[in-house]
Design goal:
Layout lengths: L4 H4 L13 H5 L8 E3 L2 E7 L3 H18 L4 E5 L2 E6 L9 H16 L11 E8 L6 H8 L2 E3 L3 E3 L7 E6 L10 E6 L2 H13 L3 E6 L3 E5 L5 E5 L7
Parallel strand pairs: 5-8, 9-12
Antiparallel strand pairs: 1-2, 2-4, 3-4, 5-9, 6-7, 7-8, 10-11, 11-12
This protein binds ligand H2B.
């Protein structure tokens, strides 16, 4: 599958850890609230206030200290998003499952509930001619760093990543860049249907792994659920 992004794109980086595939991650007890998207395992818990989000943040910090692995955390008054990964390309290991379970325990202690419909990772896919390398330009413009041969990422993992792929046959009516959206597997098709209801079109379907969508004026968006089922 084209989608074995994370497997292939450890990109020669063998950090000597035992990779936990998404299917194995999901088989771990206590991580039921989590989804595996591009760049790691993610969860979103709703909070009633910023103060409650901060209280949860303190619990997350305790969980991280206990497990010995630090997550990325996005704190908003509406809720808290947590991401864990082991390798820079988002590949997981057992420690991510342990941290995920510990974070969920803290959330449940506070009575928080997760909402997977709030999870998504967006990226910009840039097509380039086979013998052209435009990565240095994009690296300079964004101030991004390389991960493997195909991706550039925000060093603090905030903005969308850039993915470089070869421009295959010219595709009139579709530009040289498209948007990638990685969502929980259970959300992908709903998102496709919502996009169609809003005037979009399915240009090609690789259901349930990914759909290539076109906006009413032919901008491309790929909606991907595959990261959540990789075995
Ligand atoms: C829809 C499809 O899953 C996406 O276009 C994938 C394909 N493979 C990919 N591979 C890499 N390395 N980065 C990506 O962002 C990416 N996106």
């Amino acid at each position: 599958m084209r989608g074995s992004k994370m497997a292939q794109d450890g990109n020669g980086v063998d950090d000597g850890f035992v990779r936990l595939m998404p299917k194995e991650f999901h088989a771990t007890r206590g991580v039921e609230d989590w989804s595996v998207l591009f760049w790691g395992a993610h969860v979103f818990y709703r909070t009633a206030s910023f103060a409650q989000a901060a209280e949860f943040m303190a619990g997350i910090a305790r969980a991280a200290a206990l497990v010995g692995h630090d997550p990325d955390v996005d704190v908003r008054p509406e809720g808290v998003t947590v991401r864990t990964f082991t390798r820079v390309d988002g590949a997981l290991s057992a420690v991510d499952a342990a941290l995920a379970a510990a974070v969920s325990e803290e959330a449940h202690r506070l009575g928080l509930t997760s909402d997977p419909t709030m999870l998504q990772i967006s990226g910009i896919a840039v097509a380039q001619d086979a013998n052209l390398d435009t990565r240095p330009f994009w690296e300079a413009v964004f101030g991004y760093r390389r991960v493997g041969d195909e991706d550039l990422i925000d060093p603090l993992r905030r903005g969308p990543h850039l993915w470089f792929h070869e421009l295959r046959n010219p595709r009139p009516g579709r530009g040289r860049t498209h948007i990638d959206l990685s969502v929980p597997a259970a959300e992908a098709e709903k998102r496709v249907q919502a996009a169609v209801a809003a005037g979009g079109r399915i240009a090609s379907s690789n259901a349930p792994y990914w759909w290539t969508m076109a906006s009413p004026d032919n901008h491309g968006v790929d909606i991907a659920g595959w990261a959540d089922f990789e075995e």
